[in-house]
Amino acid sequence: MAYVPGYDHDVFVSYAHKDDATILGMDEGWVTTLVKTLEAQLLMQRPGIIKFWMDNELARRIDWTPQIMDALKKTATLLVVLSPNYIASHWCDREKDTFLKIVEEQVRANSRVFVIKRYKLEDDKIPVVFREKGFKFWLQERPGDPPRILGYPRPIPGNPNDQPYYDELNRLSFEMTNELEQMRKIAEAGGSKARTEADPAQAPVFLAEVTDDIDDKRQQVINYLEQQKLRVIPQKLYPREAGEFQAAVDEDLAKCKLFVQLLSAVVGKRPTGAPGSSYARLQYERAISAGKTILQWRSRDLDTKTLPDADHQKLLEGETVLAVGLEEFKQEVLKKATYEPPPAVKRKRAFVFVNREQDDKPITESVLRFLGDNGIDWIGPIDEGKPKEIRKDLESNLRECDGMIIVYGKSSPLWVREQLRQSRKIFARNEKLKAIGIYEGPPEPKKALETGMDVQILNCREGINESALKAFIDNL
User: Fold this and answer.
1) For 244-357, where are the E strands, in sequence order?
2) Residue 23, burial from CB neighbour count under 10 angstroms (0-12, 13-18, 19+)
3) CA 20 to 30 Å from 106, out of 202, 328, 351, 442?
4) Is 10 exposed, middle or buried (0-12, 13-18, 19+ CB in 10 A)?
5) Could you give all domains of the chain from N- to C-terminal order, each with its CATH number?
6) DSSP state, 241?
7) DSSP alpha helices (H): ranges in 155-258?
8) Element (H, E) at 328
9) pTM of the full structure
10) How confident is the model over 44-53, as pLDDT tens digits?
């Protein structure tokens, strides 16, 4: 039995037999040596035997095709040894296409293929699905020198020239261990391999491709959402050419209502044919074009002001980007993915002006959504324009509203007090005004405003407080 329940094998090794040819004085080829060393590494990193499937007979018995295809269907992950010989092999191509087709409609499809790049290849020679993947097992020490295969013909422990081989092998074994562990946990928890067993009542979540430095964080989000029985797409690799990439993104976006994206300081690669846009930017723009709800994340420790790329800095500072801990972000994704608006309610014909500073725009969204769900018309301030125009718009809102909410989040108490003073003068001419609320949101602590005005303090420091907001609405 394989380490991952439900499979006969954990790893299927897809390689060209020419790359495993033995040389005089050696019993084993380069690929066989690598696989045996990898098995030993995996055994050290976790308990239990990892079962490999490696065909050593195909070169002599080409009638084994049904057995190979059956093994592919019963294997958890695919290990590809990519080389010129692999690309030229009809059999290798069939193994690759068959495995990708098998896992296309299963969970974790995008993380179940591991690629060893045995030799230097130009991008246009590499199959599209493998271009962004890979563990580099070749080295070109100086420009103009021919590349050398790491550990060829056989790696020697302790040899400084072979240390890069063992470093890359250790990275491969670490990532493969993580993947097999995740698949085992899902299987033991009763999770199925089929994506279609996710909750059919929920639309899938589009989780954008990320740069390599945060791929582990993307996987954490996938694991969390799948445990909540949500389907996450894409789980297949997109083409790298800009037009084909965009078409594939658009096709998947059409199935979703929520676009989720993790961002880091790394801009990442740019698609062929679109030199001005990174893959991150292109996915974001397609989500905007499709009218999707957008939720993005970056680390709270990331200082965007130090980034040299102005376009990427702008992306990281967007209104839909949350600079929070990853756990907090995952919960917000779940909330948005499973949110269902309540049944339509009869509108009260009440009009609320929600005043806030630019920095508090993200936390204001939950207030606006609550007002709308409860039949209240609302309007916010304008953030751009000439000072005279902004002032005129503010005064018009104060004269016409039935109620006002001032958002006290990141804004200073001085700013809140100034808004109260300004509104007090205009409210003297507003006969419709029925309620004034101060929405106290995160972060804590809040300094007291020390005012005797007739205002309701809406304590939402730990998140939306429905009872406080309903009490405000009842006064309208």
Assistant:
1) 258-262, 293-298, 321-323, 351-355
2) exposed
3) 328
4) buried
5) 9-188 (3.40.50.10140), 198-338 (3.40.50.10140), 351-474 (3.40.50.2300)
6) B
7) 163-188, 215-227, 242-253
8) helix 326-338
9) 0.49
10) 877 778 999 9
